[in-house]
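Cross-posting from the modeling subforum.

Setting up a comparison between two proteins and wanted a second pair of eyes on the formatting. Protein 1 (sequence, then structure tokens):
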Amino acid sequence: MGMVGMKKTVYDIHAKNYDSWYDRNSAVYASEIEAIQKLMPSCSGKNSIEIGVGTGRFASKLGINYGIDPSVSMLEISASRGVRCIKGVSEWLPVKSSSMGLALIVTSFCLMDANMTLEEVHRILSTEGYFIIAFVEKNGILGEKYRKKASKSRFYRNVVFRTTENIISMLKEHGFGDITVMQTLFKPLNQIQRPEEAEEGFGRGSFVVIKAKCIKNG
């Protein structure tokens, strides 16, 4: 999430506050987990990694082996949840080529260099390995809200929100295919009191999950 730097980032300084958001919004978190789980392939015996792992809320719940993030403070929390942590950024992954069966990015793609990240994800995945990317849809209720307050938010100041169509197009350009899409969070967050049932497709939900297969020539 972001570029390399020795200086502490907002994610280092506010790691615990960032993590506690999921406790305060437990039904939203459960809805997001459920939507991702619907697209999770069987990873038995395969290496898997969450890129931009943050505090490990998703990796630990979804059984992801490794997590990578530039924030040491967040990685410490992630490690406490049993994730094997690597310090680094999405644009230059310190991971061997074709070594992962599954790569996951949740909500942090908007903070990354999209093209460099997708090139790296494609490189580290094995042939027909899976990439799952979950994000806040630019034109959804939540995306519109975050865009309005982005300039004043410590976490969303430098984000680039994207539409589902844009991300699908980018995935195809970078060697991914066999695409499946799920969506959830159909109401404003303060109205979600119980976990929502995820639906196929996109266009209604604020939180979209795409699963794509890595296609390699030769």
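Protein 2 (same layout):
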Amino acid sequence: MKPLYFLLLLALSIAHAETRIAVLDFELNDMTMKPGIAEEVARTASIKPLLEGELKSAGYAVIAVPLAAQQQANSGFGYLFDHDEVAAALGKTLGADYVLVGRLHKPSFLFAYLMGHLIRVKDGQLLGNYISETKGGDKKLTLKAVESLTVKMDADLDKRYTPPPPVRKGTLSLPNPEHI
């Protein structure tokens, strides 16, 4: 009976030791001549669920963040991004070990930067300031930027994330030199 009890305690301690991350909604910092167009608002809204999916695939526990709780902690655009201690306090109320505050910074129609601050909740320490560049607004490119951001975060956490391999649409065939 004792070995079974020990295994049960071990399983509970492993489950309890799971790294818990709260991902906040990303803010759009659109500096283009047409800020806040519907496509960019939608792309920005898609980043959080994409990132949560990548973190879950690596075995992280993703803590739900009620929009009302985030709005209550926020005192305006960029506030949580610039105030690690406030973001950490929000994460603490949610039972998270870490909180990620993100932003989509768009200085041009040609490219944008996915930015994230990873904050350790227990002491409010900024663990990482991550930036991943994406060209254009294509959904596949946004996903690649999210995967890049996840790789960077994971390097500062548990080092267990492996991004999906690139999808290849056929092979490159070179011309036969005899036909040239």
